[in-house]
Amino acid sequence: MMYHVTYLSGGFRVKGYLCLPNGFSLPVSFLEQHLQRLYGVSLTVIPLTCPLPQATEDIRSLQLPAFLYCRGGINRVGRVKPDWVAQFANQGFVVFAPAYRGNEGGEGRDEFGGAENEDVREAYRFLSSLPFVDENQISIMGFSRGAVNAAQTAVQIPAIHKLVLWGGVSDLAQTYEERMDLRRMLKRVVGGTPAKVPEAYQARSPIHLAGQVTCPVLIMHGTEDVQVDFSHGLNMYRSLQELGADVIMHTYEGYGHHLPAPIHAEAIQRMMDWVR
């Protein structure tokens, strides 16, 4: 079962997706009451149509691993993919995917790895507060730009179990140079060019955070990725290796940013087998 959840982050009402593993259900009233206790205000929970089979079992007596999915893109580009959320949950995880502030009716403004990262930390807090989530088994994955938010969160919350960077940006200044189509947006949301505000780009670059990551890391990247060059993943992998980190890399030879459906399903299976 999947739900569209409103929660609080930095004083803003923001949106996210919560999905339970195949076969489990949870009353909307339970989630609304839980949010009321957590935040002290009334917040909405909307049940969504989910491609998983009809839920039959109450989840509240269990302790399950959880998975935070940080979406890519910005605004309407790269929105949370509900089918991905369901596929992750179908591996036996409680999944939460923040939409980031300013998206899907949420308040505030997405800063591409800036203040909106509080939305991810608050999503972790929400997940860890759920009685059916094992707070020692909460992992995080960032896809594309989401790698920035995922890496920041893994540094800020050392209790994160494992970190996955999938087709992820590792150096935002490099992205600025490579993606002429993104320069105007980056100057607007980051506050200038890499030459003008280098510290802002470094704060949004996982490769500059590598020395502070303490959990195991999986890097996944296609060698023909033209949206986030393969060198982002490879350089992040080598940096973590040099630092003595617990890191592995899944390379998808000949594939781009998005994998064909059968390869995508295999990639999810490999990823979740590693996360467990």
UniProtKB/TrEMBL annotation:
It comes from the Bacteria. This is Prolyl oligopeptidase family serine peptidase. Keywords: Hydrolase. It comes from Ectobacillus ponti. Pfam families: Peptidase_S9 (PF00326). Residues 84-275 form the Peptidase S9 prolyl oligopeptidase catalytic domain. The keyword Membrane does not apply. GO terms for biological process: proteolysis. GO terms for molecular function: serine-type endopeptidase activity.
